[in-house]
Amino acid sequence: MVAPRADLDWPHLPFAYQKTDFNLRYTFRDGRWDAGVLTGDETLPIHIAATCLHYGQEAFEGLKVFESRQGEALVFRLDENARRMAGSCRKILMEPPPEALFIEAVERVVRANRRFIPPYGSGASLYVRPLVIGSGPRVGVAPADEYMLVVFVTPVGPYFKTGFKPMPLVVEEEVDRAAPLGVGDVKVGGNYAAGMRASYGAKQRGYSEVLYLDAKEKQYIDESGPANFYGISPEGQYVTPASGSILPSITNKCLITLAEQMGLRPERRPVHVEEIFTFTEAGCCGTAAVITPVASITWGDRKVTYGDGQTPGPHSTALYRRLTAIQAGDAPDEWGWVRRIPLD
Ligand code: PLP
Ligand code: COI
Predict the structure, then answer these.
(1) Of 27, 92, 202, 268, which one has the greatest count of Cβ atoms within 10 A?
(2) Active site residues
(3) Distance between CA 80 and CA 76 in Å, rounded?
(4) Sign of dihedral through CA atoms 218, 224, 229, 231?
(5) Is the confidence at residue 161, as pLDDT, over 90?
(6) Residue 251, ligand 1, Cβ within 6 A
(7) pTM (2 decimals)?
(8) Which domains does the chain carry?
(9) Does the beta carbon of 130 sit less than 6 angstroms from any atom of ligand 2?
(10) Whose CA is nearest to atom 8 of ligand 2?
């Protein structure tokens, strides 16, 4: 018998941890990954000298599952997340989980927690958080010889509380998130630790997030704390930064494809911070952020407001509608972005 759907306030879920029934752990030991264990235990027993605890050997991913109108479980860009996780692991010398294992893990944990998949049309999704940690002990700085792949899920609403409503950003000049030849282009925990005080400070001052500049010249836009950045030029270009120190957002990659199809010309290139004054709209994009339009950007004592600062711009709105329709199975999936997870 299938358990009834969890009784949650689906339309008002925050982006926060919510206990579900199961999480999943695989261990890499003696040169191979084990078969993985599903458990209801929310804690990990971990060696006090594990490399993740001391030297930051940790990488994670974030992806979303949506219920379709027909009640199917649709996962967005699972293949891309599997590839990126492997790339993040390789960059910090962790054992990358094979893509097939990553895919199996995500499908398995979603199936086990199917009663937490938010209903179609609720605006919520099941967020999947896979992480790889160095679990073997080391005291000298060196890669571990044991790793764990842990996957948990949690039903979520939008990352930015306002959802699809414009939010204020501030250009961050005092803090660098990532160095040009560092690890900003992979999804490792240390990048988020590096940015925490900037995000925290911005929120204290009434902004939703920061916009980082490139760490070398402090001239070009990198990205926001949890998401990539784009601007729409008056000539109809979808402009998004090219930089070696930003995370290659899978959402942004999709938006570039959609923008092109919708008649906007995508340009991925260094974006000088002065250009914020030329855009007609701007947005942040990512799995958690989806598209969050930008109301205003404050840069030192200068500020730009997009439109009336309250209404999402037409291009961001069109992109948002198209993306979310594909994710929910309501619009044709021309590029094979969505994969149905068998639930039985
Ligand atoms: N940039 C950063 C720093 C992120 O943490 C994320 C979230 O994953 C993104 C961008 C957006 O990437 P994606 O669209 O693949 O979720
Ligand atoms: C995501 O969008 O999935 C992320 O991992 C961003 C994170 C800061 C919540």
Answers:
(1) 202
(2) 187
(3) 9
(4) negative
(5) no
(6) yes
(7) 0.97
(8) 10-156 (3.30.470.10), 167-327 (3.20.10.10)
(9) no
(10) 226
